[in-house]
């Protein structure tokens, strides 16, 4: 029986190896991943007092006090503290905490939500307030961190970087999408046997097509939300004619105003010229009248001079005669 059981186990192992060789490296990778997931346990399962967390039950961390480790099966540092983490979980009841762990290879979305960039990464959570543990990974230091409440001296994660924030929801989706793309790449290169560079070319082409499609959708949405006036405003011919007449009148009004102002300026200039001519005529007439009056006055003065001149001559003759008579008298 023992020999038969051993032979059966060898036959099963050989069959598994033949199947893995026939299906390729992707099957071996999936088999190892399934084995690691089975050994790690499903989300929510208690295995050696370590609660396995995933996308479906991570919200449990928001209540109570937790210590959560993010690890990967291939990480050497994670493998070194595996036994320490198990021993730490055994003391969880005495410490009044819950110890959990997250496999980032199985939960890329959750690792993105906590923005895990190094492995292993340990977080302390107290009623939804998260602090990153950066101390030593020995059992004594982990226990002292909780018992002595050293976490109170550590600055908590900012609100916008909290795993429950909207931004980290988007980050979780981005990490999940990257994991999905990595699975497709593994399927193309492993299962279908496509060359790596051909897989990259397929992703580049898909990215361009998706970008064009999303751009077209964005243009259509913007066109629906902000339609152009010429497309959605229907006007009758009368309204169009009235609008044109109003526009023409509005354009003609400044021209007419300019013409009227020019005409007014010309009329004003002509009136000014006429008034200047009348003033000149009046001034010339006045000058002529003054000349006539001056001529009359000068004529009268001349006549007076002429009338006075014989009187002076007669007076002169009389005086000469008197002097002669006096001389004659003196001679006698």
Report on the structure:
The chain has 332 residues and is an alpha/beta fold. 68% of the residues lie in helices and 9% in strands. The chain has eleven helices and six strands. It has helices spanning 2-23, 25-40, 76-80, 82-90, 92-95, 108-113, 139-147, 166-191, 196-225, 229-232, 237-331; strands spanning 46-47, 50-52, 65-71, 98-103, 121-126, 129-133. It has a six-stranded mixed beta sheet with strand order 1-2-4-3-5-6. The relative contact order is 0.05.
Bin the helical content. Answer: 55-70%
Beta-sheet strand percentage? 5-15%
How would you spell out the order of helices and strands? Answer: HHEEEHHHEHEEHHHHH
Query: What structural category arises from helix and sheet content?
Result: alpha/beta
Tally of alpha and pi helices: 11
| Low-pLDDT stretches | 1-47
Query: Main sheet, how many strands, which sense, barrel?
Result: 6 strands, mixed
Strand order of the largest sheet: 1-2-4-3-5-6
Distance between the termini: 224 Å
Question: Total number of β-strand segments?
Answer: 6
Determine Rg (CA atoms, Å).
60 Å
Overall morphology: elongated
């Amino acid at each position: 029986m023992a020999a038969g059981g051993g032979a059966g186990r060898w036959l099963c192992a050989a069959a598994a190896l033949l199947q893995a060789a026939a299906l390729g490296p992707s099957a071996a990778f999936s088999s190892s991943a399934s084995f690691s997931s089975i050994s790690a346990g499903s989300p929510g399962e208690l295995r050696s007092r370590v609660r396995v967390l995933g996308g479906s039950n991570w919200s449990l961390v928001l209540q109570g006090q937790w210590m959560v480790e993010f690890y990967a099966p291939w990480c050497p540092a994670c493998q070194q503290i595996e036994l320490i983490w198990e021993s730490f979980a055994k003391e969880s009841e005495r410490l009044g905490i819950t110890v959990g762990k997250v496999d980032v290879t199985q939960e890329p979305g959750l690792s993105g939500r906590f923005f895990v960039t190094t492995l292993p990464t340990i977080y302390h959570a107290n009623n939804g307030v998260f602090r990153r543990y950066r101390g030593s990974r020995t059992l004594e230091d982990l226990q002292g961190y909780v018992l002595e409440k050293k976490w109170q001296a550590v600055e908590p994660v900012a609100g916008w970087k909290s795993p429950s924030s909207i931004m980290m929801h988007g980050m979780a989706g981005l990490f999940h999408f990257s994991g999905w793309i990595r699975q497709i790449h593994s399927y193309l290169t492993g299962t279908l046997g496509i060359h790596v560079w051909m897989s990259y070319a397929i992703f580049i082409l898909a990215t361009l097509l998706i970008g064009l499609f999303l751009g077209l959708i964005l243009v259509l949405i913007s066109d629906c939300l902000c339609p152009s006036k010429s497309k959605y405003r229907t006007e009758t011919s009368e309204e169009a004619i009235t609008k044109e007449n109003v526009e023409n009148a509005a354009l003609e009004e400044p021209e007419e105003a300019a013409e009227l102002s020019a005409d007014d300026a010309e009329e004003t200039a002509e009136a000014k010229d006429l008034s200047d001519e009348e003033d000149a005529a009046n001034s010339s007439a006045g000058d002529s009248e003054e000349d006539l009056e001056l001529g009359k006055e000068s004529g009268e003065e001349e006549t007076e001079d002429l009338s006075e001149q014989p009187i002076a001559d007669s007076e002169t003759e009389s005086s000469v005669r008197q002097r002669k008579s006096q001389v004659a008298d003196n001679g006698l």
